[in-house]
Design brief:
Oligomer: single chain
Structural class: mainly alpha
């Protein structure tokens, strides 16, 4: 603990996981929106980038969750009202769930559309992942609808997370933001 981090601090590894995730999430969301507006052959390149970002995020989030088992985050600050601690936990849990479900839904949808991560859309451009199902358009459409819905929910959750961090730093001045810096 310190004066700038009165309630403890996240580990250096947890901070790296967090701050590496931030630009990857932004790029994945942005590329997902852009894909919907591309009508020419370059669309496959955007799919390759988007899918590789999603799978990389999935790996990163799973590693981050595993790390949390070995290095738990600091306990919620006791001076915070109980409703704030509960709301914070709820937003964090929803963010983790969304960051795991989103790439899984996208990966399954791609496979159900008959486009596994192979060839032009291989992971990182060169790692072909096995095809695990035949094309099934009905399932693909459902999975893609869920993937799209979650893609719009994620920025809402992120905005709530960022707004809370700014609120704690600028209004409450309680050191909460500093725990992750």
């Amino acid at each position: 603990m310190s004066i700038t981090r009165p309630d403890g601090s996240y580990s250096a590894v947890a901070k790296i996981f967090h701050w590496v995730s931030v630009p990857l999430i932004g790029l994945a969301l942005l590329s997902g929106v852009v894909i919907g507006h591309i009508k020419d052959a370059s669309k496959m390149g955007f799919y390759a980038v988007h899918e590789s970002l999603g799978l990389t995020l999935l790996i990163l989030v799973l590693a981050r969750l595993a790390w949390r088992r070995f290095s738990p985050p600091p306990a919620p600050a006791e001076h915070l009202p109980a409703y704030m601690r509960r709301l914070s936990a709820a937003v964090h849990h929803m963010l983790y769930a969304a960051l795991v479900l989103q790439p899984v839904l996208g990966f399954f949808a791609s496979n159900a559309f008959g486009f596994p991560m192979q060839g032009a859309t291989a992971y990182l451009g060169f790692i072909d992942l096995p095809k695990f199902m035949n094309a099934w358009e009905g399932l693909a459409n459902i999975l893609m609808a869920l993937h799209g819905w979650l893609g719009w929910l994620l920025p809402v959750l992120i905005a709530a997370h960022v707004a809370a961090a700014i609120y704690h730093h600028a209004i409450r001045r309680d050191g909460t933001l500093m725990r992750m810096l």
